[in-house]
Amino acid sequence: MNYRHAFHAGNFADLVKHAALTRMLDRLQADASPLTIVDTHAGAGVYDLGDEAQARSREAEAGVARLTERDLPAEFDGLVRAIAARNPAGPVRVYPGSPALIADALRSQDRYLACELRPDDHARLAGLLKSSGKQAEARLADGYRAATEAARATQGRLFVLVDPPFERADDYVNIVGALGSVLKARPGAVVLVWLPLKDLETLDSFVRRLEDAHLPDALIAEARMRPLDNPMKMNGCALVTLNAPAGFDRDLRSICGFVVSALGEDGGLAKVWRAND
User: How far is residue 65's CA from residue 25's CA, in Å, rounded to a whole number?
Assistant: First the structure.
């Protein structure tokens, strides 16, 4: 599948991913020590929900547009603030992707490396991060390699966000290989991986690869928006966390449970579990 960020901006999967990301940053930044963040597949950073890609997909209409109509759990506070700051007039027209959310949250002691291989998206990303005035760099580079290099070179704490477009058939294998290299260099690194959920075997196979690579026990959150009975559709999404901070499992239960109940179809399911359960 091709999950380019611009086409799907503001859909249910973005709501799960970005609410979880803002909660992760809150938890990691409760520690005052410096934090380095690597975003392996950053995209353009912010998205115009009125552009041609969104006019075709209309996924934001079934995602963030409906979210604003509801009372939300506290775990969505960071995402809601970021959306409101970019849409002061009311209806959501501009949606903040992961780079915008991370740049907003950076403290003076933190550093952010955002990787993107598409030259057009990289150019927009570079402009966004330059205007932030933070220690944030947009790099036209392979994010898997950059994450490994950062793990070897960076002092202090490391958080890696892995969110590829899954244009390549070997992305699942490449993710595990990169995480193995990152955690070999920095065993305490915190990793958050976003995955599309089409069928259960693909997710289970990925978790088995993590186990076979002897990586830390994974915390897995699933937001199944409908039964997993049509592998040709994206039926939900999953987040896989390694070295999850204390309390993050509760965040994920609240986030996935709310999105499935508010936006999912009959037969939807939210669950959070550990690979060693």
Answer: 24
pLDDT score recorded for residue 53: 63
Locate 250 and state its tokens.
Answer: 């509760």
Tokens, residue 9: 């901006």
User: Which helix (H) or strand (E) segment is 269 a member of?
Assistant: strand 269-274
Phi and psi at 112, nearest 5°, equal: -130, 130
Cβ–Cβ contacts within 10 Å for residue 277, how many? 6
Spatial neighbors of 147 by CB under 8 A, at least 6 apart, are: 38, 40, 115, 160, 162, 178, 181, 182
pLDDT category at 2 given cuts 50, 70, 90 is very low
pTM (predicted TM-score) = 0.94
Tens digit of pLDDT for each residue in 237-274? Answer: 999 999 999 999 999 999 999 999 999 999 999 999 99
Superfamily of domain 5-274: Vaccinia Virus protein VP39 (3.40.50.150)
Q: Is the pLDDT of residue 119 over 90?
A: yes
**Which parts of the chain fold into alpha helices (H)?**
5-8, 12-28, 52-57, 64-67, 77-86, 98-105, 119-132, 143-153, 171-185, 200-212, 248-263
If you search the block for the tokens 């991370």, which residue do you land on?
A: 102
Estimate to the nearest angstrom the gap between the alpha carbon of 67 and the chain centroid. 18
C-alpha span between 246 and 276 (Å, rounded):
17
> Dihedral of CA 162/166/168/174: which sign?
positive
